[in-house]
Design a protein that fits this description.
about 120 residues; mainly alpha; MDM2; two-stranded antiparallel sheet; about 35% helix; SWIB_domain; SWIB_MDM2_dom_sf; SWIB_MDM2_domain; DM2 domain-containing protein
């Protein structure tokens, strides 16, 4: 019985012809776009609001826009190093902030903005 020898190289199959991919829009069209106009601040955020007596101990009693109130609260937090060391998203409240946060000893930075807005008129 004779054994059949396999040929050393099998004939290579041709790759199936793929349709050509669509080309991206020419760079010329992208260059013609107008630059974005600078953003205008939302008037609701820029309206001066009066802080409650509790919040006034942290940010002062003068009317301020929401953005400035948040900025001053963050300055207070950083000055007293009240961010949690393990989880920087959490704020550890001291006595003044505990009153603002509704008696909570620790709140997340996202919850903090909601609690602060409750103290603005």
């Amino acid at each position: 019985m004779a054994t059949a020898k396999k040929s050393p190289a099998a004939p290579a199959k041709k790759a199936a012809a793929k349709p050509a991919a669509k080309k991206a829009a020419p760079a010329k069209a992208a260059a013609e776009k107008k630059p974005a106009a600078p953003r205008k601040p939302n008037a609701a955020f820029m309206k001066a609001m009066t802080p409650s007596d509790v919040l006034a101990q942290v940010v002062g009693s003068t009317p301020l826009p929401r953005t400035e109130v948040t900025k001053k609260v963050w300055d207070y937090i950083k000055k007293l190093d009240l961010q949690d060391a393990a989880n920087r998203r959490m704020i550890n409240a001291d006595d003044k902030l505990k009153a603002v946060f509704g008696g909570k000893a620790q709140v997340s930075m996202f919850e903090m903005t909601k609690l602060i807005s409750d103290h603005l008129k």
